[in-house]
Amino acid sequence: MPKFHWEDFTPGQVTEYGPREVTADEIKAFAAEFDPQPMHLDEEAARASLVGGLCASGWHSCAILMRIIADGFVLDSASMGATGCPEVKWLAPVRPGDRLRVRMKVLGTRASNSRPDLGFVDARFDMLNADDLPVMTLTSHLMLGRRTGAAP
Amino acid sequence: MPKFHWEDFTPGQVTEYGPREVTADEIKAFAAEFDPQPMHLDEEAARASLVGGLCASGWHSCAILMRIIADGFVLDSASMGATGCPEVKWLAPVRPGDRLRVRMKVLGTRASNSRPDLGFVDARFDMLNADDLPVMTLTSHLMLGRRTGAAP
Fold first, then answer.
1. Residue B144: strand pairing partners
2. pLDDT of residue B63
C-alpha cells in the first residue's frame, strides 16, 4: 500500500526532496546517448560556447528532477503518471558537481470527473543548486490514485 | 561551418526527422536510472497499470525526441541551446518497438534585441509512431547563431 494518495496533496503545500549530485561523467553519458551537442559532451568545446563550460542537457536536468522526486515521494505513492507539463524553463546551467534539490509546491488539486479512483495534482517543481539558485522550473499535471473508499 | 543558422528557419516551415526505434531494454535502462516507476521498468507490473503495458518514461520520450532532432538538424546547426518549453504533452504511451519520427513546424522567429549574433526560433515538435499517431508534442524556444555578416 503506497503512503501517498491524491488526498495527501493540498494546495499551497511545499515539500523539498534531494539532494542528488551530478557528475561530469553522467552529463557526458546522457549527452552521448540523447543530446550530443558539444557543450554537453566536451569541456574544451563547452568553454567556447554560450554557456562557458560543460553543462547538462536540459533533458538531463528534467530526468534528474524526475529521479529526485521519484526517490522523494513518487515511488511511495499511487502515481499513475502525468499528462504533461504546461511549462519547462531552463534557467541556469547544471554543472558537474552540482548538488541539486527539488522544491515542490502544490498549485491545485481536483478529482477526476470520469474516474472516481483517481485525481489530479497540479504542481510546480523548482530545482535548486547548492547556492539556492534555481537551475530549472517546471509545472506538471500529476495523476494519483485515491484512497480505497473514495466516494464513486 | 554549420549548415543551418537562424536565417534558415521561416514561419510555417515543416520538416520531418527520424525514424528511430526504441527497444524494451532502452526503456528499462532509462527508467532504472531516472524514473523507476513499475510501468517503465517491469512488463508484469506495467500490464496491471493504467497504461496497460511497458511504456517509456515521459522524460525518455523527450530525450528520444531530442536525439532525433539532434541527428536531424541540431548537430549541423549553429544551435546555442534552448531556454525552455512552454508546453510538453504526453499523448500516448511509447512502446517497445515503436519507430518514432519528429515533425517540426516553425511557429515564429525573431532576432535578439541584445545580441546581433543570435536569434530565436519558436517551434512545435510532434513525435509520431509508425501508425502516424502523435505520442507527444512539445513547443520550444530555440536559440541559433546568425550567419556571419548579420547586421549588428
1. B79, B119
2. 98
CATH number of residue B119's parent domain: 3.10.129.10
Grid look-up 501508425 returns B131
Domain assignment of residue B87, yes or no: yes
Q: β-strand A134-145 against A79-90: which pairing, if any?
A: antiparallel
CB contact under 8 A, B67 and A35: yes
For residue A150, what pLDDT band results from cuts at 50, 70 and 90? low
Q: Identify the closest residue of chain B to A46 by CA–CA distance.
A: B80
Chain B: nearest CA to A5, how far in angstroms? 15
Residue B70 and residue A35: Cβ atoms within 8 Å? yes
Query: What is the tally of structural domains in chain A?
Result: 1
> Measured between beta carbons, which residues in chain A are less than 8 angstroms from residue B63?
30, 33-35, 57, 59-60, 63
Residue A2 lies in a domain: no
Residues A43-55: tens digit of each pLDDT: 999 998 888 999 9
Here the cell at position A143 is 495523476
Is A152 inside a domain boundary?
no
Structural domain harbouring A30: 11-145
Q: Where are the beta strands (DSSP E) in B14-66?
A: 14-21
Centre a 10 Å sphere on the Cβ of residue B81 and count the other Cβ atoms it contains.
21
